[in-house]
Amino acid sequence: MSNPFIPIETAKIDWQENTPYSLVYKDFYFPRANALSEVRDVFIEANDLIHRWLKLQSASHKQFCIGETGFGTALNFLTTWHSWLQYAPEEAVLYYYSCEKHPLSIIDLKKCLAQWPEFESLSAELISQYPLLTPGFHYLSFSEGRVKLILMLGEADSCFRQLLVSGDLKLDTQLKCARFDAWYFDGFDPEKNESMWSVDLFKVIALLSRPACTFATWSTESRVKDNLLNCGFIINKQKKQDAKSDMLSGELLAARYSGGRRSTPWQFSTKKEVAIRKAIIIGAGLAGAMTANALVRRGWKVTVLERAAHPAQGASGNSQAILYPQLSAFKSPLTDFMLMAYLYALRFYKQLPAIEKFADLKGIIQLAYSDKERKLQSSLKKWLERYPEMAVPIDAKEASQKAGIVLEQGGLFIPETGWIDLPELCRFLLEHSEINVQTETCVSQIYYENGCWLVNGQRAEVLVIANGAEASQFEQTSWLPLKRIKGQMTWIDESLESRTLTRPLCGDGHVLPARDGLHALGATFELSFTHDQADEQGSELNLDRLSTLAANVNWQKEVRAQWAGVRAAAPDYLPVAGPVPDAHAFLQRFAGLADDSKRWIAASGAYLHGLYLCSGFGSRGLTSVPVCAEWLAGLINNEPGFLNRETIRSLSAGRFLIKRIVFGKK
């Protein structure tokens, strides 16, 4: 992996008379006077948003999607959010996509937001969720799910291009995959920030826009008008309410161009409306519980089928599972996804009520226990200098102070992480009046009949397979190359020396602070095993690894309890989340990629209607399940989505069939 992560550069601001001034673009972020009224005038009124939102009351789809080309100080977003809560139906959801190349630091953002006391409560909610400013997409939910912000950090053109299904005008139009109802074209003066107003960007924007999608902008420069006209927009020039200056507004007549290089959209599944919002989920572990919870929050009824006597009895049965990131200084599909998933997971768990009852999230210590680990941590130096909130390098003395015991080596202190009791978490997620958990229910076959999936005599238009390592047991999924990996935990008594341990130590294995007098040790990683039960050999391995974690501590060595679970993992160690391909039809449809993997094929993927997967999370389920379950529930619910195209491909089960076509391997 030679492609390094490039940190996002925050905005360089000079505060002049309490107004932020960009030192890069030599311009103010907003007018010194009447900034709020100008936002309402230029963007809310010119897009006729209030009238359109009121009409959602009688609409079948109560969703509205806005795109913004510059997030800036968040004033446009806050004003829109505030108006949405006033005028949109309570059950309607606003999706607000905004990109920003140079986002404000949290300090500058707070200073900006303090100027608008009418948004005090909304500002507080935004600040509490304002993400670590890493490159890529950040998904935030506000006002109990009524407003969704997809904050995309990077160049506008590349960010919005990643929302295209294929980039082909004819196919994307045919697939009806446009999502935007209105646009805010906002950025610094075109003379100083040309890329934000380019014809290439407007081509992508037109392709992403629904018929009659509107736009508004304060800029009236001729190049902006020409670029918009060239891309299929109708333009109206009008006076602002102060009558002192002009603005532009208009709507899309029809997109005219493809969005640059086309990409065969094998990851895209055509959607079919469901008559009854009811789903069946196979598996009551972490993946099943989170998906069920995400669906009922959207108004669905869910039946969860679990073969064991209680939820979370398989790989999700660990009562002290560790939440930790997969840190890397280099970009890859895996590291891109794991960074995004980890940051989302931190926000997700922090917002859970009563999380402290079944979790301890005070941070972990990742020890530099080997030459390989020391080299990895050394490669993170520049990345962590930019993002100290992610992890902080510490020496042996600092590590000992944070751990509460004497350690021989330092490493990284990773804040906000720790351990979570998985069975308790699953029970919490499943405690809902619209979730029906049926235990001791084995599922051996599934059938599709008359538009519904039949499972043990029950039927629903939507079926989610979330039973971990057993996800490939069905005829429809038998081709999945999931690996079974056994992981064993061991519990020992605390000793006088070990009872002072305050944080999890991670290295070659891990040891946790004592809970009810017992330390948890783990976990093994067994690719080859003859049975899935806990055994003496696994506990011996866990005990032996204590010497690499804290050799100076006198540990008790008598095993008090042990547990094992079998995880599911894909060969590339990325999860599998999304629709299930019709393998035979999929292989036929994209057979042409065997000669050229980048060949353009004007077709969407071949997928089984209403059948979905949520599996393959390996040993990092606590990190990766929350974002996958949320995205999958949104996909099932026909929402516009918050993952970029490459991430959707990385998670799709179709990737295994594409690899079979390209590389000729089953």
From TrEMBL:
Annotated region (tRNA (mnm(5)s(2)U34)-methyltransferase), positions in chain: 1-253
Family statement drawn from the similarity comment of this UniProt entry: In the N-terminal section; belongs to the methyltransferase superfamily. tRNA (mnm(5)s(2)U34)-methyltransferase family. In the C-terminal section; belongs to the DAO family.
Gene that specifies this protein: mnmC
Top-rank taxon: Bacteria
Location of the region described as FAD-dependent cmnm(5)s(2)U34 oxidoreductase in the Swiss-Prot/TrEMBL record: 282-666
Annotated ranges, domain MnmC-like methyltransferase: 117-251
Protein name: tRNA 5-methylaminomethyl-2-thiouridine biosynthesis bifunctional protein MnmC
GO cellular component terms, semicolon-separated: cytoplasm
Classification via SUPFAM superfamilies: FAD/NAD(P)-binding domain (SSF51905)
Location in the cell: Cytoplasm
Role according to the record: Catalyzes the last two steps in the biosynthesis of 5-methylaminomethyl-2-thiouridine (mnm(5)s(2)U) at the wobble position (U34) in tRNA. Catalyzes the FAD-dependent demodification of cmnm(5)s(2)U34 to nm(5)s(2)U34, followed by the transfer of a methyl group from S-adenosyl-L-methionine to nm(5)s(2)U34, to form mnm(5)s(2)U34.
BP term (GO), one: methylation
Signal peptide feature range: none
Catalyzed chemical reaction(s): 5-aminomethyl-2-thiouridine(34) in tRNA + S-adenosyl-L-methionine = 5-methylaminomethyl-2-thiouridine(34) in tRNA + S-adenosyl-L-homocysteine + H(+)
Domain FAD dependent oxidoreductase: start-end pairs: 279-634
Enzyme Commission code: 2.1.1.61, 1.5.-.-
Transmembrane recorded as keyword: no
Alphabetized UniProt keyword annotations: Cytoplasm, FAD, Flavoprotein, Methyltransferase, Multifunctional enzyme, Oxidoreductase, S-adenosyl-L-methionine, Transferase, tRNA processing
Isomerase keyword on record: no
Gene Ontology molecular functions: flavin adenine dinucleotide binding; oxidoreductase activity, acting on the CH-NH group of donors; tRNA (5-methylaminomethyl-2-thiouridylate)(34)-methyltransferase activity
Cofactor entry: FAD
